[in-house]
């Protein structure tokens, strides 16, 4: 279950307005929210790399590697690689590939090599790639499959990029912002007349990240409204959360 963008925004406003400390507009919130979400998302991979070096508990609910993998699992997906001319395939786009997993050709897992290894393996008739034992290079966000006679039937498992949250709104009769709970539609800025974006999109992070999102958004909000007390208090809370989560 995703984190509600409306709940987070209203909570941030409630905390800011409790002592009349200031206000952030929906546009400011959307920009901050997108930045905070990607920061937390990127931290998963750094934390996972560190935890893999440490022995973990056998209990799933106490195993931190398992817990982080559960949060990343939201973004695990698969799709077809397209193109295939001279063995060069493009990866799925929108939102695109964050981390590439296994590459498969007709139910055969293709071995990934670095370019230096490819030169060596291609020198010998015994190790040269074939349709039964294909290899690939991953460069410039494309995969080059060998032998180049493979031009279709390639699919990939991957972790996709995260999509920005959006708190959409309409304007009320008194000029107030009213939450638009409809599914987000990007509109068409090139149409005549212009078709505006409408609706909202929730955070994609695991629901357990709601408090962390609010705290980190408050750090940026304090900078925008130039309130050092909010920045300091929220930053201290972020540090405490990080220490507790990694201890």
How would you characterize this protein structure?
The protein has 247 residues and is an alpha+beta fold. It folds into two domains: 5-72 and 163-246, no CATH class; 82-152, no CATH class. Helices cover 36% and strands 20% of the residues. The protein has six helices and ten strands. It has helices at 5-18, 26-51, 64-72, 115-121, 210-224, 228-246; strands spanning 76-80, 82-85, 88-90, 97-105, 108-112, 135-139, 142-146, 154-160, 169-171, 177-179. Strands 1-8-4-5-6-7-3-2 form an eight-stranded mixed beta sheet, with no helix packed on it. It has a two-stranded antiparallel ribbon with strand order 9-10. α2 crosses α5. It is elongated. 21% of the residues are buried. The mean pLDDT is 86.
- Range of strand content: 15-25%
First-residue to last-residue Cα separation: 26 Å
Strand order of the largest sheet: 1-8-4-5-6-7-3-2
Total helices: the number is 6
Morphology: elongated
What sequence of helices (H) and strands (E) makes up the elements? HHHEEEEEHEEEEEHH
Mean pLDDT: 86
Query: Using DSSP, what is the number of strands?
Result: 10
Radius of gyration: 23 Å
Largest sheet, in brief, is: 8 strands, mixed
Stretches where pLDDT falls below 50 for ≥5 residues?
Answer: none
Helix content: 25-40%
Structural class call reads alpha+beta
Number of domains: 2
Characteristics:
6 helices, 247 residues, 8-stranded mixed β-sheet, two-stranded antiparallel ribbon, 36% helix, alpha+beta, elongated
């Amino acid at each position: 279950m995703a984190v509600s963008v409306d709940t987070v925004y209203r909570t941030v406003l409630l905390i800011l307005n409790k002592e009349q400390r200031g206000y952030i507009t929906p546009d400011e919130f959307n920009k901050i929210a997108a930045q905070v979400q990607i920061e937390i998302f990127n931290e998963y991979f750094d934390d996972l790399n560190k935890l893999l070096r440490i022995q973990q508990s056998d209990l799933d609910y106490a195993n931190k590697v398992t817990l982080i993998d559960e949060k990343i699992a939201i973004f695990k997906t698969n799709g077809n690689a397209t193109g295939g001319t001279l063995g060069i395939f493009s990866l799925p786009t929108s939102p695109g590939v964050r981390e590439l997993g296994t590459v498969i050709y007709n139910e055969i897992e293709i071995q990934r090599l670095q370019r230096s290894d490819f030169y060596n393996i291609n020198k010998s008739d015994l190790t040269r790639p074939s349709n039964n034992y294909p290899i690939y290079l991953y460069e410039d966000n494309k995969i080059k499959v060998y032998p180049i006679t493979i031009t279709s039937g390639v699919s990939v498992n991957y972790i996709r990029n995260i999509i920005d949250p959006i708190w959409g709104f309409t304007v009320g009769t008194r000029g107030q912002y009213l939450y638009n709970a409809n599914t987000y539609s990007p509109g068409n800025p090139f149409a005549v007349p212009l078709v505006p974006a409408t609706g909202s999109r929730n955070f994609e992070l695991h629901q357990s990240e709601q408090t962390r999102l609010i705290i980190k958004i408050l750090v940026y909000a304090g900078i925008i409204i130039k309130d050092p007390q909010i920045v300091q208090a929220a930053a201290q809370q972020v540090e405490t959360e990080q220490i507790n989560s990694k201890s």
